[in-house]
Design goal:
The protein is mainly α. The protein is built from two helices and no strands. Helix 1 runs antiparallel to helix 2.
Length: 156
């Protein structure tokens, strides 16, 4: 193998090509590779953050659902208590109304009894007066008095 001008020219051309590539071609390629590497790294970080945010959102959604179920059960319990309270109040009002009606009926009965007694007393007084008149008219016979009193008693 002989070293001649062609080989030296090829070495010089190759050196110039290496220098030109290192100076002008290689930096944009390495810069593009670094930029691409940064984009990929930031994409991976964003994916990891999104994954963590998704997990946090799932946990938050689960806790919100659990809290909503708890609130729903509390609302249902309060509604049941409120309805039981309303039922008890209605029962109490019904009992009071029933007692008021019974009291009014009892008062009406007492009033009618008092009226009946007053009417009976006036009838008894009328009968007594009528009996006394008949006794006075028949004053002659004690047996007649006795019969008249028995008749008066039967009328009462």
């Amino acid at each position: 193998m002989e070293i001649n001008a062609t080989i030296i020219g090829q070495f010089i051309t190759f050196g110039f090509l290496v220098w030109f590539t290192m100076k002008y071609v290689w930096p944009p390629i390495t810069q593009a590779m670094h930029d691409r590497e940064k984009k990929i790294a930031s994409g991976l970080e964003a994916a990891e953050r999104s994954k963590q945010e998704l997990e946090m959102a799932e946990h938050k959604a689960f806790s919100i659902i659990r809290e909503a179920k708890l609130q729903a059960s509390q609302i249902i319990e309060q509604a049941n208590l409120h309805s039981a309270k309303l039922i008890e109040e209605a029962k109490a009002q019904g009992k009071q109304e029933n007692q008021r009606i019974v009291d009014l009926a009892q008062a009406e009965i007492d009033r009618e009894i008092a009226q009946a007694k007053a009417a009976l007393k006036s009838q008894v007084a009328t009968l007594a007066i009528a009996g006394a008149e008949k006794i006075i008219q028949r004053n002659l016979d004690s047996a007649a008095h006795h019969d008249l009193l028995n008749e008066l008693a039967a009328n009462i």
